[in-house]
Each structure stands twice: as C-alpha cells, then as structure tokens.
Specification:
The strands form eight sheets. The protein has an eight-stranded mixed sheet. A five-stranded mixed sheet has the order 16-17-18-20-19, covered by helices on one side. A four-stranded antiparallel sheet has the order 9-10-15-12, with no helix packed on it. The chain is built from ten helices and 31 strands. Helix 4 crosses helix 5, helix 5 crosses helix 6 and helix 5 packs across helix 7. Strand 13 and strand 14 form a beta hairpin. It is globular. The model has no long low-confidence stretch (mean pLDDT 97). The chain has 538 residues and is α+β, with helices and mostly antiparallel strands.
Length: 538
C-alpha cells in the first residue's frame, strides 16, 4: 500500500476554491516587475482588475511568504491585509457589490525561490550562457505563479488578458508571452519590455525569459490564416536554431491543426524561446532547452545527445521538446484543468500528441508502435488523478500511461475520423476554458457512441490494470474482466491466432461466452499491442 499524503492548512489555502477566491472573477493583470539579476532580487507591482461574482468585503490573493507585500492600493489608499502561509487576505472599506468591476494594485519585492532543477521544481533560474552573460527564466507549474508574482493562483480562474512588463539590465532582452508592444529605455541602466497577451492564460504559463537574445521570424499558413512564428535564441545558436526549428515547427503545426483544430492563439502568435531549463508550455512563448537535438535531451552540453523515450527509435527523428510542449498549446493551455489533480488532461493528451506527430510523418502503425514503447516506464503504483483542493497532481503515469489510454480509447472507437472529430471537438467546445474530469471524460464518452466512463474510471482512478480472464466452461471458451471500476465492461479485440480480430464485450464478475468460431484457450490472442491489460488463461 502507498502511504497516504498528509495535507496541511497551507495546501488547502493554495488548492481550494473558497468563497474568498470565488467571490471575484479576474479580468486583467498588469504585471510590472524589475529583475535585479546580480542580487537575485525582484520588485514591482501587479494590478488586479476583477468582476465581483457576489457581494463581499474580503478576498484572497496569493504570494509566497518569502516575498514582501510592500503595500496594497485601492482607490488611492492603502488597504489592510493579513497573511497566512502563501495566502494574502485583503479587506475592503465597504462592500464590493455583485456585478461591479473594480481593481487594486499589489506592490511587492524580495528574493524569489530559486529553482534547483527547473522545470520540475518551481521558481526562477539564474545562470549564465556560455559567454558568461546573464541567462534567467521562470518556470513554476505545480508550485504556482505566486512563487514570483502576486495573483489569484488557482487554475480554475484564468485571466482574460494580461500586460507583462519586465525590466532588465540594459543589453539584455526579456521575452514573455503574447506580442511585444513597446521597449522603453528607463535611463537607469534598465530596459522595460511590454508584452501583451490578448487571450485567456493560466497563471503558471506567464513567463519571463531574460538573455542576450537573437531573434528571427517566419510565418505559417494555417487553418485560421497566417500565423506568425517568432524565435528567440542565444546568438551563437542562431544557425542551429534556424535548422532545427525549420525542420520541426511547421510539420508539428500541420499535424496538430489536423488532429486538434486551429492553433488556439493566432492573435498572440507562436514563439519558441531558448531557456536554461529543458522546456515548458508557456502559452505563445514555448520554453525550449533541448539543445537542438532530436529526441529528448539527455545531457552532454559540449556534445549534446538525445534519447528516444519510447525505446523504438521512432523518437529520434524529431525534437521532443518542440512537439510535446507545443502539444500543450491545445491541451493544457487552450483546455486547462480547474484543479491540479486533473493535470492528466494536460499531460496525457500532450504525451499522446507525440504519437500523432509520428503518425503524421510516417503512418498509423508507427504511431502505435511509439505509444506501445512508452509502456516501459509506467509504474502502476498510484492513481493518475490526484487529490482535489490541495494543489496536488497525481501519478507521473499521467504521461506515458495516459498516452497508452488514449490510443486504447481510439482503438475501442474504431473510427479514426470520429476520433479526430472528438479531439477537435474538445478543443472547440472547451475553447479557452477551464475544465473538470467529468467535462473531458463525458464529452469523449458521449461522442464515441460507447460508454467509456468505466474505462476512464479504471485507468485514471486505480493503479491496477484490468485483467481479462479466460476459462473453458462446459466446453466453451468464456471470459470476464477482473477490475476495480464499477460496471467495467471494456470492449476488447480478440482473435484466433492468425485470424482477424473481433470485438467482444466481457462483463465484470460473471463469465460470458466468447462468440468467435473455433476459438479455444490454446489459440486465443488478445490485442495487447493496443490494449494495456493483463490476460489470464485458466
């Protein structure tokens, strides 16, 4: 048995949608931050514009306790506030009426948490490039954006738009999300870069990337017209970047627009930004640190090498970070889970997007082989869905096992055009929205023509694989599912060895006959290439 996680008041304050958070809907931020890189110190402000969803006098926003709230200003006056762990509670002088629009500004400063192993732990990365110039980036998924700026740090409420103003030492460039509106020489040795995001964005996607960047650009003729492609890289990597991005980006966009629908952020463009960490799906400014190798970067800065996570060799013909992190533009950024417990909605689909990319540049069998190869790292020790309301994700199996599950769902549906319509339908139905487990699983189940809810239940809520048990009963081959999920009756493909696969739909608990001519327990074969199940023959 896995030990149960113990959660604290701090976890609940961070993860729970309390009335102090649901009382206001965030509409707009202006984040204005200065980076003193030498001191690893930041200072600035965050303007909150919101709409009241109910009458209230008190609300919660979030900022890590190691950062100082200098003051909170409302209508020209400072407001009283209190702090508990990483939560800040703000009290207004009179009731904010339901439906009213209002705003306040938080001024803050401090030394933000330094990320030790970004992007897997959150915070700010402070390092230098190979020429000794500053090289700084933020990465904060999971830990939360409040690790470096004040915000309503809950995935369920995405801001409608944001202006990101980052001031950096002269000679450096900041690249953030959206489009660059203005560059201002501040006359104090700093330059401010103003980036505007015209679409909803989740907090952890908001990024600062600071370096001596070189820029080049291109365009892609996509489903919604001309999409701008902007690339920001270290100058000495410019030629490598032109080659690697040129080979990978447009084929990726073609594949994903085919399967998922139009790129969701035409107004903000598509960017790749070289970073000192491996990568992150920062909306419209994808962080790239794969060292211009195909596969998944596995070390060797002087002579970088890539590996294929599937073990098939199929992943060594394309750049893993470009494909996987860009897949998040649809699943993770366009469609965002309301609670971190459902991060599988981000990672399972992004992981699965890799196989669809393989399929697009080779064929369906190659894509399936890639998915099948990913099984080698699956642990099956804890559920993929995490505990709700405490800002805790589930098992890391959400990546590769999630990909395997989606390939299996496609196999059950047995109609590739319907499957494509479902993937595109998810992105149009939940366009720029936050979603729940039920939203996604019910949509797929409803549009598949098959009740897939018990399948999702089994694979996402339980670590154990279902087992298909066969036995000869009264001279007839019979079978049943051994599973945890109530009502589990997943259709599965079975055949006489060497013959054609046929669908059967065993139930849970009671044996039912296998109606395939000539099949016996000695010659049966289950499609374990596409189905991730146990098989037991008595």
């Amino acid at each position: 048995m896995q030990p149960k996680d113990k959660f604290t008041r701090a976890d609940s304050l961070r993860g729970n949608l309390t009335p102090l958070r649901t009382c206001y809907d965030i509409n707009y931020y202006h984040l204005d931050v200065k980076f003193d890189i030498d001191k690893k110190f930041i200072s600035g402000s965050s303007l909150f514009k919101f709409t009241a969803t109910q009458d209230f006098t008190k609300l919660q926003f979030d900022l890590f306790a190691n950062l100082k709230v200098e003051r909170v200003v409302y209508k020209g006056k400072e407001l009283p506030y209190s702090r508990e762990f990483n939560a800040v509670f703000l009290t207004f002088p009179k009731t904010i009426a339901k439906g009213s629009r209002d705003e306040f500004t938080v001024y803050y400063s401090g030394n933000p948490t330094i990320a030790v192993r970004a992007p897997w732990d959150g915070g700010v990365v402070y390092t230098t490039d190979s020429l000794g110039k500053p090289y700084v980036a933020t990465a904060c998924q999971g830990m939360g954006a409040s690790v470096w700026w004040p915000n309503k740090d809950q995935q369920a409420d995405e801001v409608d738009s944001i202006l990101i103003s980052i001031s950096v030492p002269k000679g450096l460039t900041d690249v953030s999300n959206g489009r660059l509106r203005k560059v201002t020489d501040l006359k104090d040795g700093y330059t401010r870069f103003d980036w505007f995001v015209a679409n909803p964005i989740n907090n952890y996607d908001v990024a600062a990337n600071i370096a001596d960047y070189a820029h080049f650009a291109d365009t892609y003729n996509g489903e919604k017209g001309k999409l701008t492609l902007d690339y920001w890289v270290l100058p000495y990597n410019l030629e490598k970047a032109k080659k690697q991005f040129g080979l990978n980006v447009k084929p990726m966009l073609k594949a994903f627009e085919h399967w998922f629908g139009p790129y969701p952020w035409y107004e903000d463009g598509y960017k790749l930004v070289e970073t000192p960490h491996l990568g992150m799906e920062h909306q419209s400014a994808v962080a790239y640190g794969n060292h211009y190798v195909n596969g998944y970067y596995a070390g060797g800065r002087g002579n970088p090498r890539g590996i294929d996570l599937s073990g098939t060799g199929l992943g060594l013909t394309w750049d893993y970070i470009i494909v996987h992190e860009s897949g998040h533009e649809w699943f993770g950024n366009n469609i965002t889970s309301k609670d971190l417990a459902d991060m599988w909605i981000h990672e399972s689909f992004a992981d699965y997007s890799e196989s669809l990319f393989v399929e697009s540049i080779q064929d369906k069998l190659a894509g399936q082989e890639y998915v099948s190869g990913l099984r080698r790292t699956i642990q099956n020790t804890s559920p993929i869905v995490g505990p709700y309301n405490v800002n805790k994700e589930g098992s890391g199996d959400m990546y590769n096992k999630g990909s395997v599950i989606l390939n299996m769902i496609r196999t059950i549906i047995n109609d590739d055009e319907k499957w494509r319509a479902i993937l595109r339908g998810l992105n149009s139905t939940f366009y720029h929205q936050t979603v729940t487990y039920d939203d996604i699983t019910k949509y797929i189940s409803d549009h598949s023509g098959t009740n897939l809810l018990p399948v999702f239940d089994q694979y996402l809520h339980y670590p154990n694989l279902p087992v298909l048990e066969f036995a000869a009963i009264n001279g007839k081959l019979s079978c049943k599912w051994i599973a945890d999920a109530r009502g589990f009756n997943m259709p599965v493909k079975v055949r006489v060895k060497g013959g054609a696969y046929k669908f059967i739909t065993p139930g849970k608990g009671n044996f039912t006959s296998v109606n395939i001519d000539g099949i016996t327990k000695d010659n049966l074969e289950v499609d374990t290439f596409n189905y991730y199940v146990g098989v037991m023959v008595d």
